[in-house]
Amino acid sequence: MEKKTLKLILSVMVFVYFGCTQKQTDNKSVLNISNVSKDSLPLYFSLANDFNLSRQKRLEYIYKANVIVTNSENDSLNRVNLFKVANRYYNINLMKEYCKTVNLVLENSEKVSDTVSMAKAFTYLGDYYRIKLVSDSSFLFYYKAEKMYEKLNNKFDLAKTLINKSDLLFRVGDFISSEKEVFKALRIIKDYKNQEAVNEVNYDAYNILGMVYNGMNEYDNSISYHNKALKTLEKMQIIGKSQTMAISYLNLGMVYSSLNNYEMAKDYFEKGIEQQRIDNQDLKIEASLLDNFAYAKLKSNDKEGLPNLFYESLEIRDGLKSASGIFISKIHLSEYYSVYHDTIKALQFSKEALSLARSTNVTRDLMKALNQMAVLDPQNASVYTKEYIRINEQLQREERKIGEKFSRIEYETDQIKGENSDLEAKNRKLVYFFSGLTILGLFIYIIKAQKAKNRELLYKQQQQKANEDIYNLMISQQNTIEANRVQEKKRVAQELHDGVLGRMFGVRMNLEGLNRFNDDLAVTQRHDYLAELKNIEQDIREISHDLNREKSELINNFVAIVDNLFEEQRKTFACKLITNIDSNIKWDLAVNAIKINLYRIIQESLQNINKYANATTVKVELKKQENNIVLTISDDGVGFNVNLKKKGIGLQNMISRAKDCNGDFNVKSKKGEGTTITVSIPLE
Questions:
Q1: Residue 143 host element (H or E)
Q2: Residue 284: which of 13, 86, 62, 12 has the closest Cα?
Q3: Fewer CB within 10 Å, N or C, the chain?
Q4: For helices 363-376 and 381-494, what crossing angle results, to 10°?
Q5: Beta strands of 393-496 (E only): which ranges?
Q6: Alpha helices, DSSP H only, in 495-591?
Q7: Which tens digits make up the pLDDT trace of 106-116?
Q8: What is the distance between the alpha carbons of residues 167 and 161, in angstroms, rounded to a whole number?
Q9: What is the pLDDT of residues 227-244, one digit of tens each?
Q10: What is the dihedral of CA 173, 265, 273, 8, to 10 degrees?
């Protein structure tokens, strides 16, 4: 029983290897490339599948291709190229990257509702979970792909998916269901027009049937279908044909090993090794052929090449880090040394195999290792036997449940699809309802937005009128100052004409008259007249000062307007007002818009303080900092929560006025700690 179990596991492994070769594409010679570019993509794909190159070199080309594809637009060609990238990851057994790439192409396909690519991605994910021995996930993805291909009426891909599904069922020991799926695939592909496609499906189908019947101990049927597979292969024109033929010879050798016909088994294994070395594409197949060839020799008492063939296979499997292959090699080596009475080595390899089986948690491997240990270690045989029986009972329970699990997956998937159809109908109704609701909401929003615009326009009109009033006030103030200035000019002119000039004329005439005298009296008179000239000079200086003061008043008419506002505040409200206006500010450089907005900000702030602050002291300061006018207004009132009040119309008006002057507005306040407003405006 244990011998048949081991051979069945090997048959499963062989079909996994065959599945790997199905994803191979053209093989081309090595070319030199330097830069990653879109034009090089076909070359990268070709080199990534060149089995004459090292695995590391092929991986470099896959990475280069992946960089180009993942950075391209999500169109149909991009999704095709993503599948090519996934294939190449598969072929070098980099399964994590394979799964990541397939999930990416599935995500991209779902975005654009590309059902063809979605179905293909489901198939690829089914392959991934089949290799990872997650049978329920693998079955689910194959079933999804199957239903999609049925809907698309894609007979070839539907048949291929059914073949994959049957292989999965074969792996979990459901031979009857596997057989049904294979014949279903053969019926679907029977009348397909493309003969090459028919041959491809037939070859896979005959291979699986050969393994299924081997597992069911129907060896004649198994040999018949494996021979059919070989005949079909002869008609096919595929890349790596010798590799594929080697797999068929391996499968036939396994059947003859099951029949204990080791001489025939050796012949087929030897043929397989010859064919494998023609293409030399998959070292896993070579390792399996060498190991089984050696095992058939052992069973037929043919010592030639032993145990070197076992070690050669183990070395390849170690290099590939193939846990299942390493386990088989070590079990066979244990049997070899047991046959030739080297108990120490036999026990060593058996223990190593048991340890590996426990780490990988493959049930059938564990059972085989326990059985071998029970034979080699009689003292602990009962312990190993008890564990073997427990695991075997557990395996049988799981195999009985697996068919029910797959049926449940099919049922639940179909049920979800039905629910999705009902949900789609409900969603359509909801879409219509919410569309109408959205249109109504949009209509209401437009009305409200229009009203808000009207209010904003009205506010701007009111603000414009207020600005005009202030401007008129400033013009009126300026006119008053201008009238005073004209009157002052007349006064100065009269003083210069009637006073200073007359006195200077008299002094000049008297000095001319004294030029004829040089006595002491004349000298004294000259001194008196010089003193008079000094008095006239002082009068001219005072008139000049008056003119400068008048000019300063003219320039600082804005200051006068603001002072008037401050005086009005002091007269009307009881709180103490402290003001300071920097005399270094050149108001003649500031445009009227800045003066108007500063005035309105001061006015608005004082109004807010008067209404809400309950302040005892208010400070207003206008100063120059570098090339900016900085206005600071602070009070010791009740303060407020800035976050709650930031939408107030008065505060918004001040912020808006500061922005109109390309300035910054900042307000700091806390309840009970007063308020400080700071406005900084460039002096243009």
A1: helix 135-152
A2: 13
A3: N
A4: 140
A5: none
A6: 501-514, 520-555, 557-572
A7: 999 999 999 99
A8: 10
A9: 999 999 888 887 778 888
A10: 10
Report the alpha-carbon distance of residue 320 to residue 297 in Å, rounded. 25
Smallest CA-to-CA distance from 91 within 71, 70, 69, 65 is with 65
pLDDT digits (tens, 9 = 90+) for 544-555: 666 555 444 444
The structure tokens listed for 138 are 């693998």
Helices (H), 190-218: 195-215
Express each pLDDT in 187-206 by its tens digit: 998 888 888 888 989 999 99
How far apart are the C-alpha atoms of 86 and 69, rounded to whole Å? 11
CA distance 79 to 106: 9
| CA 218 – CA 237 distance, rounded (Å) | 31
Contact 334, 376 (CB under 8 A): yes
User: Taking 90 as the threshold, does the pLDDT of residue 209 lie above it?
Assistant: yes
Which strand ranges, in their side-by-side order, compose the sheet holding 628-635?
576-581, 617-625, 628-635, 675-682, 664-669
pLDDT of residue 364 exceeding 90, the answer is no
User: What letter would DSSP give residue 589?
Assistant: G
Predicted local distance difference test score (pLDDT) of residue 622: 93
Contacting residues for 103 by C-beta, under 8 A, at least 6 apart: 121, 125
* Amino acid letter, residue 158: L
Q: From the centroid of its chain, how far is CA 654?
A: 43
SS3 237: coil
Between 480 and 111, name the one with better pLDDT. 111
Check: CB of residue 605 under 8 Å from CB of residue 651.
no
The two tokens of residue 102 are 């397939």
CA distance 20 to 323: 17
* pLDDT tens digits for range 504-517: 766 666 766 766 67
* Residue 414, pLDDT above cutoff 60: no
Q: CA 477, CA 557: separation in Å to the nearest integer?
A: 7
Residue 631 host element (H or E): strand 628-635
pLDDT tier at 556, thresholds 50, 70, 90: low
If one compares 408 and 307, the residue with the highest pLDDT of the two is 307
Strand partners, 578: 619
Considering only residues 370 and 517, tell me which one the structure prediction assigns the higher pLDDT: 370
If phi > 0 it is left, if psi is from -120 to 50 it is alpha, else beta; for residue 280 that is: left
CA angle 275, 285, 240 (to 5 degrees): 50
Angle at 168 (CA atoms; ends 229, 230), nearest 5 degrees: 5
* DSSP assignment letter at 673: S
In angstroms, rounded to a whole number, what is the distance separating the alpha carbons of residues 352 and 331?
9
> Between 195-215 and 241-258, two packed helices, what is the crossing angle to 10 degrees?
20
Q: What residue has token string 């896993």?
A: 284
SS3 label, residue 435: helix
Q: How far apart are CA 204 and CA 206, in angstroms?
A: 6
Instruction: Name the residue type at position 80.
Output: V
The whole-number pLDDT of residue 558 equals 79
Given a cut of 80, whether residue 419 has pLDDT beyond it is no
- Calculate mean pLDDT across residues 301-312: 92
Q: Which of 231, 335, 249 is nearest to 289 (CA)?
A: 249
Paired tokens of 61 = 């080309």
Distance between CA atoms of 89 and 93, rounded to whole angstroms? 6
CA distance 341 to 337: 6
- In the chain, what is the straight-line distance between the N-terminal and C-terminal CA atoms, in Å? 101
Angle at the Cα of 61 (from 57 to 63), degrees rounded to 5? 115
CA distance 134 to 377: 34
Q: Which two tokens stand for residue 12?
A: 């499963």
Residue type for position 665: F
Report pTM.
0.53
